[in-house]
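Worked Example 4.2. Consider the chain below.
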Amino acid sequence: MTQSLRVMWTGMAVLLLAPCMVFAEVTWIVKGVPKILDGKTLEINGQQVIMQDLDAPDLDQICFTKKKYYKFRCGVAAAEKLAKLISNQVLSCEGAKTNDQGILLATCWVGEAPQRIDIGEQAVMNGWAVYDPAQSARYKRVQAVARQLRQGLWRAKFVMPWDWRKGDHEPPKENVPHNQ
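Applying the procedure from the previous section yields the following structure tokens:
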């Protein structure tokens, strides 16, 4: 192939790939030992990260035991369980978007591929977070197992975190799966 043909083919390849590069998403990766802010929010090296595709009770959220109807601070419990799950390990959080406050929405892992562990999935599996149908159904099956095994929040009566934030502080008579 002559030099001019190589230049021409290279030029055409660049033109064909240019639109793909314009629309490519920027991915942020944050890595370090996190500080736990609540059941779904971390801070790593000064960068706040919200674990995506799930939700967890806010720190002020109250839940009730099923048998004696005692109140307990399930938001605090969710944060404590997340801290215990991570237990000062280095996390890698990867995301492509931020929320309205500029906080990174990301999936976080412990370990390296192919053996890395999805922390969000573990939080839902342990019952201290729920899948967020407004984001995706990514953790829906894991939540079904946690609910069936009565893990974490599923041992209590509670309001879904997004309903709690809207002002619904009365627990339902029975927790029903959300299918939004």
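Confidence is low (pLDDT under 50) at residues 5-22. The domain at 26-165 is CATH 2.40.50.90 (OB fold (Dihydrolipoamide Acetyltransferase, E2P)). Compare this with Example 4.1 before moving on.
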